[in-house]
Amino acid sequence: MNKRELRQLSEVIINEIENGKIKYILNICELLSAVAEYVAKARYTIFLNDNNSSHQERNQMISYVTACIRSEQSEVEYRKVIVTSHLVDEIFQSFQDKIENENTLMNLMDELRESLEIFIVKYESYKNGYTHYAMYELSFAALSLSNKIKEFERTIFLMSSMPISKINDNLCHLEVYLSNVDNLKSFGLKLEAVDFIYKELCFLLGESTSDNPIIIEYIESGSLWLKIAGHTLTATILTSVLNSASAYYVDNFTTTGKLQQLPASVTMVNELLKISEQLNEQGIDTSEITDNLNSATKKIANKLDILLGDQPVIEINDKVHDVGELFKDKLIEQSKINLLENKSADIKG
User: What is the pLDDT of residues 24-40, one digit of tens each?
Assistant: First the structure.
């Protein structure tokens, strides 16, 4: 599992912690852990001494536990807690099934699910008699579970988080994921291709790249996971262009079983990527920039071939283009053959 995949899983479970079923259980734990927190603050000597002061403090503790029992009975829907607890365990189980190679998280998940199981058992025991001792045990189980969930949240945040961006929120943010980028040269060429396409689109829109530079928010190697921000309109058209090209590469490979490049015809590429159409929608008269448009379209097509043409899985923001498992290995094999052929040509040249 790479960091991007871990982040995607983490976002789902963090949302449950902050807004969903796990949040509900945390709220219940906060209510039920009051006894444990009260006991933790008590003087140890009240359990050893038999004087009036110790008697008084013990009686206060008993009264406090009694009040907590009444609070639980009036404020908590027991059946909902148990049902939700089991649903939360299913969420944890699903997460755990996908992180089998993350030993730190696996160990933490084992401890977390064990704490949840103990919490359920203690709650069921408490409901059988509403005794002070059962509430005492339930309270400590709730406190332990709450602490484990918070520890888990901190851990997955640290393991999967990206640096906090200070980029202007007015900029358009674009996320690109390419699954087959396994060497430094390819990595560099693809970064350069993104930058080049962005600059060409800025040029066609009459926007200054000095005033609207493309900004790299985050990069991850192994695969290429790139988050960028830039001029809103340019980045919006860039997103559309990347999605159109990705669909073309994937559809043609699954049809022919061979790597494809964008059509050689500028007219066909323009129709496919809809660059002229999008420029016209923004009030730009493309008939006045025909030569520039044709030149830019041809260059963009070449860079798109480099950026996307050898990728079995492409994600542009939330849109996924995937050749599927049946074609994945074949596409990667062909891309490696092409890379070797290009190297041989370079050496001969």
Answer: 999 999 999 999 998 88
- Over residues 76-109, the pLDDT tens digits come to 999 999 999 999 999 999 888 888 767 778 888 9
Chain center to CA of 113: 22
3-state secondary structure the chain: CCHHHHHHHHHHHHHHHHHCHHHHHHHHHHHHCHHHHHHHHCCHHHHCCCCHHHHHHHHHHHHHHHHHHHHHHHHCCHHHHHHHHHHHHHHHHHHHHCCCCCHHHHHHHHHHHHHHHHHHHHHHHHHCCCCHHHHHHHHHHHHHHHHHHHHHHHHHHHHHCCCCCCCCCCCEEEEEEECCCCCHHHHHHHHHHHHHHHHHHHHHHCCCCCCCCCEEEEEECCCEEEEEEECHHHHHHHHHHHHHHHHHHHHHHHHHCCCCCCCCCHHHHHHHHCHHHHHHHCCCCHHHHHHHHHHHHHHHHHHHHHHHCCCCEEEECCEEEECCHHHHHHHHHHHHHHHHHHHHHHHHC
Give the mean model confidence (pLDDT) for residues 64-73: 93
pLDDT of 344: 46
Backbone angles phi, psi at 86, to 5 degrees: -70, -35
* pLDDT-derived band at 2, boundaries 50, 70, 90: low
Structure tokens that stand for 100 in this block: 């089998």
Task: Judge contact between 215 and 230, C-beta under 8 A.
Answer: yes
Query: Could you report the per-residue pLDDT of 140-182, keeping only the tens digit for each?
Result: 999 999 999 998 888 887 766 544 444 455 667 788 889 888 7
**What letter represents residue 286's amino acid?**
T
